[in-house]
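Ticket #4471: structure output looks truncated?

Reporter: J.K.
Steps to reproduce: submitted the chain below (635 residues) through the standard prediction queue, then opened the result file.
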Amino acid sequence: MIKILFIEDDLAYARLVEVLLDDSGLMDCELINAPSLKEGLELLKNNDDFSAILLDLTLPDSAGFETLETIVNKYPQKNIIVLTGAKDEALGVKSVQFGAQDYLVKGEFDERQLTKTLRYSIERNNILSRLEEAQRIARIGHWEYRPEDDFFTASNGVYRIFGIDPADEAFSIEDIKSTGSPFHPLLQMVDEAIKRKKVRKEARIRLANNSTRFVSMTCEASLTPDGTYIFSGIIQDITEQKRAEELRKSRDMAQQSAKIKEQIFANVSHEMRTPMNAIQGMVNLMFQTELDKEQKQYADSIKESSDVLLAIINDILEISSIQNEKIFFEEIEFDLHTVLDNIADTFRPKIETKDLNFKLEVDPRIQWNLRGDKLKLNQVLLNLVGNAIKFTDQGSISIFADVLENARDFAKIRFRIQDTGIGVAHDKQGLIFEAFTRVLSKNHHSEGTGLGLSIAKKLVERQGGNIGVESEEGAGSVFFFELTFGKGASLNEPAKVIPQFDKLGEKISRSFKVLIVEDHKMNQLVMQKTLEKQWEKVEVAVANNGNEAIAFLEKQAVDIILMDIQMPIRNGFETTEYVRKKMPAEIANIPILAMTAWQYGNTQEDYRKFGFDDYILKPFDPETLFQKIEHFLDR
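Returned output as attached by the reporter:
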């Protein structure tokens, strides 16, 4: 049904037009008459489906072109056909300039001309509707401005972008041109468009509701035959594109920041752990010399202090590594009983020194190996047990491992570390897992960074587990965590032997050569003396950097290479790659152990990708170094 609104106070003439429409053959057409402008505007307000408006501007309550301008601004997508008297044809022409689509002269049109005008109007309306839908989807609006007669028109898309409902708000040309008008940024481009013909700008605009949008605006100047300008343009809401671009930039900056942080912590790790390697190495060498009681006391103090300092360094670097998402988890098969026995052996001297009772209980149903990250489990247990011993001066320390779920392929284990120490007040229990937080009693002092529990929490939660504490101040604590592990071989079955360190602790009786590639003089000395004290027939050569190492290997072979990673001129990665790819087979196949001060995110497999056979973490444990050298020389 085509609905046409006819605003006309001459009811006889309105009836005549209705007859013409009936005779025109325009199917399904309904003419609705409003005898006054007020009634017509009311009908428009409550009924939005009129295909065209026939408007007599000479109505008693009409203000002429001001009325037309009001309707055009309020209903920019409505097709308005102005009716004029025979002597007022100029009025019709001017009406088109003010936004009417067409005009008809009363008494001079018949049903054919009326039908043609209406059909054109309705078709134009359909085209505009499709254009409006396309613009809505693309978030685009178009506008036009004629300075000669101060005519401005804008599509619904423009109003939509500016957050304005044209049915609720009417703008005069003075409103539109005012500085505070939402349309003002569009008209600001007019002068520039005269000089450059076409202008394109992006702007950030603030809407009436205080929200902001990003828009792309164009303004193009067209010169008419009579020498006047018409300006037209497009405005597009590009808020989503801008925000996506900002998100991309933020993501790129975050990634770049993460890379910088990673490099900083790698450098910090190297710079801090490298001298610690020398300090601890020298202390280990001192213990192998003849020391009197006083000298041994000094050496013990240095050893204990360096261990505390190394633990602090490790905590700071590890929490940073976890926060930067540079923590990786392995899945290997291991015996839980062995892990817990090793934990007990590690802390037995401290427990005995404090004269504490100790108990370890493992659920008898655990009759199989577990599959998971053994090292991370060990780290969590070390932190929790060490924390329990630190805050317990009398009584006992107990470790429990219980099965919560026992499925065919996996088991959920609950670990509990119970102590009779100082306990934690209820209002402080939510804080103790926060980084750099230490909740102590006023009479208890403790060393450390306050990072151990935070690290344990993050390691457990990153593996999908949970961790918590039950405690009463002055009555001890129970720290617990739950993790799910895969099941491996039964403990009653022969274990799958991985050929590694087959002859642990055995002395190598034959002579062999070691090349140490290390730029730090003190570490060179520590490694050389450590090796020479372990093996009488070892021959040690030293290269200060990768280039010296390559030059040495071009002249003679060695049995094994200990390669520092961070060195000037040519680092350990570059040197190892050169040896593996560009040197003769007898050199390229020499075992190479990476000596690294960067602990986190690295596994044996990671180093193998770069050509290393294995890696040793600085400060190195002499026994671990000896075992790995013996393993690779025994192959």
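Triage note (M.O.): checked the attachment and the full token line is present. The radius of gyration is 43 Å.
Status: closed, working as intended.
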